[in-house]
Amino acid sequence: MKYCSAPLLAMVILAAAPCAGVEAFAQSGSGPPTGGRTITRPIDQTPPGSGTSHDALRARVRAAGTIRVIAGLRTTVTTDRDGPRLRRMQDAVTRRVFGAAGGRVDRFAAIPFMSMFVNAGQLERLLADPDVTSVSEDVPAQPQTSSPQ
Question: Residue 86: helix, strand or coil by DSSP?
Answer without folding.
Answer: helix
